[in-house]
Amino acid sequence: HVQLVESGGGLVQPGGSLRLSCAASEFDFNLYAMTWLRQAPGKDLEWVSTVYSDGSRTFYADSVKGRFTISKDNAKKSLYLQMNNLKPEDTAMYYCAARADSSCSGGYCSWGQGTQVTVS
């Protein structure tokens, strides 16, 4: 079955940077758009960014536009999220997700376990 494993989270000061990674296995990674979402304690799941299957187009939530960059390396079956100028409000559990489908929980059928980002 599809496996997505995030890494790269941690504690960082405001204004700092982190790079999240998501390693994929057991599915045709190059055929799928990939997405990052996040969930802060007590808040709803928030869409952060999506990249087309071939990496040709990217989309960002207004809250992260200009600070975050999503990228996809199909050869390595890896998804990345470069986060710069981090703010305390970016504190959340970050998830990578694939296979968008409204019938699946959270709108995606494949999820990683998440990586915690704390900005303080």
Strand content: over 45%
Which descriptor suits the 3D outline? globular
Helix count from the secondary structure assignment: 0
What kind of sheet is the major sheet?
A: 7 strands, mixed
Radius of gyration based on Cα positions:
13 Å
N- to C-terminal separation?
37 Å
Helical content class = under 10%
Structural class: mainly beta
Instruction: Give the topology string: H per helix, E per strand.
Output: EEEEEEEEEEE
Describe the structure.
The protein is an all-beta fold and 120 residues long. 0% of the residues lie in helices and 51% in strands. It is built from no helices and eleven strands. Strands 2, 4, 5, 6, 9, 10 and 11 form a seven-stranded mixed β-sheet that branches. A four-stranded antiparallel β-sheet has the order 1-3-8-7, with no helix packed on it. A hairpin with a 7-residue loop joins strand 9 (92-100) and strand 10 (108-111).
Structural key phrases:
single chain, mainly beta, 120 residues, seven-stranded mixed sheet, 51% strand, four-stranded antiparallel sheet
Gist?
The strands form 2 sheets. Strands 2, 4, 5, 6, 9, 10 and 11 form a 7-stranded mixed β-sheet that branches. This protein has 120 residues and is mostly beta strands.
Fold blueprint:
Elements: E1 3-7, E2 10-12, E3 18-25, E4 34-39, E5 46-51, E6 58-60, E7 68-73, E8 78-83, E9 92-100, E10 108-111, E11 115-119
Parallel strand pairs: 2-11
Antiparallel strand pairs: 1-3, 3-8, 4-5, 4-9, 5-6, 7-8, 9-10, 9-11
